[in-house]
Amino acid sequence: MSDDGKKTAGPAADDRLVLKLEGVCKYFGALHAVDGVSFQLDKGKILGLIGPNGAGKSTLINLITGYYQVTSGKVWFQGQDVTSLDDYQICRLGMARTFQKIKVFREISVLDNVLIGTYARTKAGPIAGMLRTKAERQEEERVLEKALGLLRYMGIEQLWDSRASELSYGDQRRLEIARALATEPSLLLLDEPVAGMNPAEKKTMIRLIQELQGSGLTILLIEHDMNMVMELSDHIVVIDHGVKIAEGNAKEVQKNPLVIDAYLGKGVNHEHPSN
Ligand SMILES: Nc1ncnc2c1ncn2[C@@H]1O[C@H](COP(=O)(O)OP(=O)(O)O)[C@@H](O)[C@H]1O
Ligand SMILES: [Mg+2]
Predict the structure, then answer these.
(1) DSSP code for 127
(2) Could you give phi then psi for residue 206, rounded to 5 degrees?
(3) Distance 67 CA to ligand 1 centre (A)
(4) What is the pLDDT of residues 26-64, one digit of tens each?
(5) φ, ψ dihedrals at 270, nearest 5°
(6) Full DSSP string of 144-179
(7) Is 32 exposed, middle or buried, given 0-12, 13-18 or 19+ CB atoms closer than 10 A?
(8) What residues have their beta carbon closer than 5 A to ion ligand 2?
(9) How many angstroms is it from 205 CA to the middle of ligand 2?
(10) Helix (H, G, I), strand (E, B) or coil at 103
């Protein structure tokens, strides 16, 4: 990588800084979906990104991960300017995400869904893998073990052979996380990971996110369940109409009048349809 210059020149020369956004904007015509948002995320921390529906949260994840291109502003990931990179390039650098509207490959097996994630990290790739040299066979075995291990970790190993479309909603969300983890990310972005889950499933997911943090992963979490956000987040960023209106720890954010007015005062703990 010829990133020496970027590493020292960028704002993330500090090794603890995993993600930094500076004045990020995304305009869809006249709609300012994200309008000048800046924040940063330190290594090993969980950042909760909250705000009402339509605030621009998912758009922010799409911008950070290269799924959308910014209208203006900058995104740095681990010291590198990733603003103009495509999603697959950013994935290779160690960022993985899940979608608010679940995206799994519905017509293939659960295991194959995770294997697709692992290919982002293997040298051979699926086509070269077919040539099956000894080294590649060993690589395949290692990858298979890893994929099964991730399914076990997510509690859906017994479903490895099912079609993804046959899985319950909660299991599909778990599968999506397994696939994201298969890319061996250092930053995981979760867009409403417990939407549609029952309280027991939510509890399990909270424990899992804590475990992932314990293993050294840095996490950006979009979530409407305030108890969950407050329990998990080291730092919270609140956006409304594309603009950051507050940030701080759970206590600071909870008593901020702007946040109460824009969001917390509006019964956000109720389930809402996933959009
Ligand atoms: N691809 C798109 N084209 C046009 N408008 C979009 C697109 N994606 C999101 N938006 C709009 O941007 C705004 C923010 O959406 P979104 O980021 O999904 O909000 P949130 O995730 O906070 O609920 C909404 O008004 C939404 O309709
Ligand atoms: Mg959203």
Answers:
(1) H
(2) -60, -45
(3) 13
(4) 999 999 999 999 999 999 999 999 999 999 999 999 999
(5) -75, 145
(6) HHHHHHHHHHTT-GGGTTSBGGGS-HHHHHHHHHHH
(7) middle
(8) 57-58, 100
(9) 19
(10) coil
